Every structure is written in C-alpha cells, then in structure tokens.
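sorry for the late reply, my laptop died twice this morning and i had to redo everyting from scratch. anyway the thing you sent over, i finally got around to it. pasting the sequence first so we're on the same page, its 115 residues, then the predicted structure underneath. double check i copied it right bc i was rushing
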Amino acid sequence: MVNIYGIKNCNTMKSAMKWLEDNSVEFHFHDYKKIGIDQDTLEQWLTKTPWDELINQRGTTWRKLPEDSKVDIDNNKAISLMIANTSLIKRPVLIVNNELYLGFKDESYEKIFNT
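ok and here's the structure:
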C-alpha cells in the first residue's frame, strides 16, 4: 500500500496525487488538517530521516514560530512542534514499502514506481 501524507490544498500535494492517479498507483491520502498526526508515526519517520529534513524550515509556519521554539531541537522537541503545527512537515511524505520519501518531483516518482 502507498500512503501519502500532507494537506489537500497544497499545490505540491495536488501535483503528487495527480501523478499517482495518472500512473494508476493506488494510494491512501492522510490529510494532516483533518486527521492530524500522531507521535508514533513521527517517531517512526524519524528513524528514517532526520528532523531537519522532515521539518520545512523555509515555510511561513516555521518563520512564525517563536525564536525559542527553533533552538535546541532534538527529536522529542521536533515531534512536539510537528504535532502542534502540522504545516511544518514537508509535503508530501510518501511511504512505499516502508520506505519514506519527501517532496515531489516527477523524476523521483518515476524512479520510486519504475514507470
């Protein structure tokens, strides 16, 4: 099963899901805004990628955080920040065969799905 995590109205998410649909890849979409994200999922992801790759530090959500929230970050603090501010999480997060992929590019998805 292919799982894709993100926010429905995000343009990158729309492009990624369109690519999956156009290439007949069945997937389950997890909308952070409707469902949120749980600590166990984030802990699992952080075994596959560091927090500073999982958190979008260039987005407006990050920039609006208080400065003290952005220092001395470890996995536990990163998890707390992402649970409280799901828009911090890079989009999309794609899980295929228990592997985690961040972001969307046509070429990357072609390699992942061997199309």
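The mean pLDDT is 96.
thats about all i looked at so far, will dig more tmrw
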